[in-house]
Each structure stands twice: as C-alpha cells, then as structure tokens.
Automatic annotation (TrEMBL):
Consists of three domains, a large central CORE domain and two small peripheral domains, NMPbind and LID, which undergo movements during catalysis. The LID domain closes over the site of phosphoryl transfer upon ATP binding. Assembling and dissambling the active center during each catalytic cycle provides an effective means to prevent ATP hydrolysis. It is an enzyme of class 2 (transferase). One of its GO terms (biological process) is purine ribonucleoside salvage. The lineage of its organism: Bacteria, Pseudomonadati, Bacteroidota, Flavobacteriia, Flavobacteriales. This is Adenylate kinase. Belongs to the adenylate kinase family. Residues 209-238 are annotated as: NMP. GO terms for cellular component: cytoplasm. Residues 13-161 form the Phosphoribosyltransferase domain. GO terms for molecular function: AMP kinase activity; ATP binding; hypoxanthine phosphoribosyltransferase activity; metal ion binding. PANTHER family: NUCLEOTIDE KINASE (PTHR23359). AMP binds at T210, R215, E236, L237, V238, G264, F265, P266, R267, Q271, R312, R324. Keywords: ATP-binding, Cytoplasm, Glycosyltransferase, Kinase, Magnesium, Metal-binding, Nucleotide biosynthesis, Nucleotide-binding, Transferase.
Length: 368
C-alpha cells in the first residue's frame, strides 16, 4: 500500500503488464501504418510515459506532438477547456493517432474529435492504454486499447492523484475500504442541506444535492435546467432518468472523494435501485440512510421562512409545498422500507438547535 496526499492506494498493474500492453498497441499500429509516417499526438499530462514507451517500441517512421486539455469539475462543471499546443498545420493530409492514457466517460475523446473535426487529416485514430468500458459513452470508436479496467480511480505510470503519483512505474488503485457514503433522508425543509454542510466538513465527504444541481442549471439556463424548471415550479419530481444520469455524472466528477453525502437523492425506488447498482460497479455502497424527522406544520413554517430569503419559487407558495409533501409521501416514503430491509435505515429527531441535530447525526455515523 502507498499513500499519496491523504489517500491509500494498492498495487494493481505491474510494470511488466503495462509494458506488454504498450508493446501490443505499438505492434497493432505498426501493422496498420508502417508504410507511412503517422503523427502521434499524446494527450498531456497523463500520457507522457505511455507516449515515451510506445515510441520506443514503434520501429518505423513517425512524428510526435502533444495536446493538453484541462477539465474543471465540481458542482458547476460544464466540460473541458481546450488548449492546443504544438500541433502544426502539417497534420493536413496525415494520419493522426491520438495517444490517451485512460478513457473513461469519453468527455475528453469527444473534445478531441471536435478539435480535429475541422482539420483535413487523412485518418484520425484513437489509442488508449487504459479503458473503462463500464462507463464509456460509446459515442466514438476506440481503435486501439491496451488494457480494459474497472471504473476505479488509478494512479501511476503518468496518472496522478492531485499531481502526485505520475512517476510510479506501476499502476495503483484507490483503496476504498474506508469510504463512507450517506443518504440524508427527510421531507423538504427537514434540514438535509444545512446538516450536510456540517457533516461534509466533519467527515471530509463530498456533498451532492440534486436540488442544488438543478438550481445551478436553471440559473445558467442549460437545457437540463429548462427541463427541470417545469417540474420544480409545480413542486413535482423531475423524471427519474434525467435525475439518475445527472447524479451519476456528479459522482464521476469526484473519483477521488473519500465518500459522499447524497442529499435529496434518491427520492424514488427506481432511483434507489439505480444508485445501488451504480455504486456496486465502483465497488462502493451506501453505508447508512439517515432520516431527519419533523412534522409537517413545523416544516411548512420553515419552508415559508426560507422562501422569503432564498427566493426559491417552490418555497413561497403553500400549495406547492403541500404538493412536494404529497410527492414525498407517495414516492419517497417507501424508501424507508427499502433501506430498512438492508438494515441501513436510521432516524434522528430533526427538531431542535442545528448543532444538537448535527451531534445526533454524528452519533449514528460514528457507529458505522
Ligand atoms: P430540493 O432542493 O432537494 O428540495 O429539490 C428541489 C426540487 O428539485 C424538488 O422538488 C424536485 O422537483 C427536484 N428534485 C431534486 N432532487 C430530485 C430527485 N432526486 N428526483 C426528482 N426530482 C428532484
């Protein structure tokens, strides 16, 4: 086991296994391109070792260049900022082979395809050393694949965790045994968001509030925002498929989190099942679902108060609030039985001082 920053990683692929995969790709490309001079384009930073070793194995004429794409993530992530360096105009009429260290969801691939779509290259191929088939969108064909791997966070051989680990000759996998994943459960106004903000600091967790992500999208006028608004404004739930996909993306954006607090998700049985299935593909699980209990009349008063300052349209009208409770009773309340069956359901009293309630939640979390 090795430690990088605050996390532990265990050995996953040896140097020998990696070099064998690199050699395999070099051989396949040589078969296809030995009679011309292809231009290899490495995607920085992660691919530098792969490119170096591949070129050592490639025994025919070739040229090499690099591009760099930087992505930013978080609640607001909208994609990738592209910067193109050192790819000269001479790629026109040439066969270009992109060399990627790892392909997971395919967001980078999409951006690369977009970048090169205006250039008049003869052929455009994609080679990746590591490939995560379980999360790849499948939008473009990947021409050369070194090793298929599960959807777990890896470091080494050029790949980093917050810039550390690139110099390792082997590949390591994040050790997720001590992860904590929580669902905060309860009616609108129960204090899930407020408490999540304290718990995320205390336990170093990533807080995902589907309501916040929707509101962010509405504020920024995205397609998702426009769709969600039509439901939120009426106090109805946004359709499962949309919400589930969005949630998965939020989790994927934080591959190195020590755990998650899911706030406002799941809200239906289909969402809970999708969450369990999704987490299991990543060797993760929900450890506890903790409900904040409070009665409707207290909650309605809280929400109306919140509506005066937050400007949330769904908090300002008692009939919309009652509709949200109705949605909760019909669609969300059955999740208590779902998590009870798994022995994961806990309830704490959600009425009292904010600090007192945080202490009640911590008591449950500390027993996990
Ligand atoms: P919240 O901030 O959690 O109260 O969510 C505000 C609104 O966003 C809800 O009333 C729903 O319309 C929508 N929403 C948030 N999370 C979900 C979810 N998991 N499933 C469906 N709709 C959701």
């Amino acid at each position: 086991m090795i430690k990088l920053h605050d996390k532990y990683f265990r050995p996953y692929l040896t140097e020998q296994e990696i070099l064998a995969a690199v050699k395999k790709i070099a051989g396949q490309i040589a078969e296809d391109y030995k009679n011309e001079t292809p231009v290899f384009i490495g995607v920085l930073n992660g691919s530098f070792m792969f490119v170096a070793d591949l070129l050592k194995e490639y025994q025919h004429n070739c040229e090499v260049s690099f591009v760099r794409l930087s992505s930013y993530s978080g609640l607001s992530s909208t994609g990738i900022v592209e910067t193109l360096i050192d790819v000269s105009d001479t790629i026109e009429g040439r066969s270009v082979i992109i060399l990627e260290d790892v392909i997971d969801t395919g967001r980078t691939v999409k951006q690369l395809v977009h970048m090169f779509s205006n250039s008049n290259v003869k052929e455009f191929k994609i080679a990746t050393l590591f490939y995560k088939p379980s999360v790849y969108s499948g939008e473009y064909n990947i021409d050369y694949v070194g090793i298929e791997i599960p959807n777990k966070f890896i470091v080494g051989y050029g790949l980093d965790y917050n810039e550390l680990g690139r110099n390792l000759r082997e590949v390591y996998q994040l050790n997720q045994n001590n992860m904590i994943n929580l669902v905060l459960f309860g009616k609108p106004g129960a204090g899930k968001g407020t408490q999540a903000n304290f718990l995320k600091e205390q336990y170093n967790l990533k807080h995902i509030s589907t309501g916040d992500v929707f509101r962010y999208n509405i504020k920024n006028g995205t397609e998702l925002g426009t769709l969600a608004k039509s439901f939120i404004d009426k106090g109805e739930l946004v359709p499962d498929e949309v919400t589930i996909n969005m949630l998965k993306e939020e989790v994927e954006k934080n591959p190195d989190a020590s755990g998650f607090i899911f706030d406002g998700f799941p809200r239906t049985t289909a969402q809970a099942e999708a969450l369990d299935n999704f987490l299991s593909t990543k060797d993760m699980k929900i450890d506890a679902t903790i409900a904040l209990d409070a009665n409707d009349e207290v909650l309605i008063q809280r929400l109306l108060e919140r509506g005066k300052v937050s400007g949330r349209s769904d908090d300002q009208d008692e009939s919309k609030i009652r509709n949200r409770f109705e949605e909760y009773n019909q669609k969300t309340a059955p999740l208590q039985a779902y998590y009870n069956k798994q022995g994961k359901f806990h309830t704490v009293n959600g009425i009292g001082e904010i600090k007192e309630i945080t202490t009640r939640l911590s008591k449950v979390i500390d027993t996990l």
